[in-house]
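Let us practice reading a record.
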Amino acid sequence: MGAPSPQSSTRIKRSIPVRKFAGISAALGGVVALAAMPMVGASAYVAKQANTSFEALPSELKSLPLPQRTYVEAADGTRIATLYDQNRIVVPLNKISTTLQKALIATEDARFYEHHGVDPQGSARALLTNASSGDVQQGSSTITMQYVRNLLITNATTKKEIEEARERTMSRKIQEMRYALAMEKKLSKQQILDGYLNVAYFGSGAYGAEAASRRYFNKHANELTLPQAALLAGMVQNPVGYDPFAHPKTAEHRRNVVLERMQAQGVITPTQMSQAQNTPLKKTLDPKVADNGCTTSFAPFYCDYVLREVANNKVFGDTPQDRAALLKRGGIVIKTNLDVHAQKAATTAAMNRIPPKDGSKKAA
């Protein structure tokens, strides 16, 4: 059997003993215990109790299919409309620029291929820093942990679940570590990177590398240049703050920081770094907004009819909630029997008879 796809439902079923990572869990648990009980001291008892508590945390993480675009098509395959709640186009890792992959690792998790989901050095340091404040002031998330957090947010169906998934507390961080350790027992590094680059938010309504590449550069994710890849890699940390449209100077500075990290780790040469940093941000952008909804369709009323049919027909789900979820999460193609030529001819005839600005105020 082949390895599971990160886009398919991913369920980590067994309670995985952290034998291989006993040192990691004990160290992390010990840090938390010491932070919570500073008067106790670094006793073996505390470390043992902390490790037991860590292993008691749930390790099962269920992942629903990622929300994607839905397409409504006419009888001849002509696209009537594109619909989405999250503008995302899932693509395999081999369809995503290797330069973007390397830029992301260099920036977010330089030891990605060395750790097992949790970077003990960074985590221990960050947990000590964060303990006194009670929340997360310093980050230490590996790419695996970030993938876990993104899945928790994406899978949330209620306002409370979304708030809990987004909260930055020590207890939440520890749970993410537990999930990350279990995930790396189930998925390969490439599968995790694949999943992360398809779930991550890149700002301006674009989720995943493919939709982001089209949004900012009007090209596919496997066609990115070095400065374009560096820009996207830098945005995942703060998609709003590093938005190149709203904050071009900040975005360009962040892009250049990513390039410096890539050069420092030997991913690119000093010459490549210099050339990319000297490329004006504006020159790399070619923005394109994806249509969304029936209003931009050449057959808006027919499109609306199709959506109402899906929403009210039990063929598409047992309950209204199921049918709404089908449209919301997308990833489907709705084929209709619309004749494009007949539709356009009828529209032209109606508009010629009663133009949109007709003085009679009649409507067609």
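A brief commentary: The radius of gyration is 25 Å.
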